[in-house]
């Protein structure tokens, strides 16, 4: 996904700069800057991938807890199964 998005940015930037059939110095520098950003993103891939996955997982977990709570709140009071959240967990996320 990262490479596809940056490839589209490269193409759009090059298309914009080639409109007059003349390439200026700032066009070269901007393409080099995009390349440096691309290389930096590849180097830091693990760091931002883990952070992104953690945030998405957290959002999905809270969404699932809210869905379960809307279905049947009584289920949380009587269920001792650890796979389902208890009412205390819902209070921690400030579910209303």
Q: What kind of assembly state do the chains in view correspond to?
A: single chain
Binned strand content = under 5%
The number of helical elements comes to 5
Question: What's the alpha carbon Rg, rounded to whole Å?
Answer: 24 Å
Number of domains: 2
Q: What overall geometry do the principal axes of the alpha carbons give?
A: elongated
Strands, total number? 0
pLDDT averaged over residues:
79
Largest sheet: none
Distance between the termini: 37 Å
Relative helix content: over 70%
List the uncertain runs. Answer: none
What do these coordinates show?
The structure is a single chain. By secondary structure, this protein is mainly α. Helices cover 76% and strands 0% of the residues. It has 5 helices and no strands. The chain has helices at residues 2-17, 25-43, 45-71, 74-78, 87-92. It is elongated, with a radius of gyration of 24 Å.
Task: Describe the structure using short key phrases.
elongated, 0% strand, mainly alpha, 96 residues
Would you kindly provide a brief summary of this structure?
The chain has 96 residues and is mainly α.
Topology:
Layout: H1 2-17, H2 25-43, H3 45-71, H4 74-78, H5 87-92
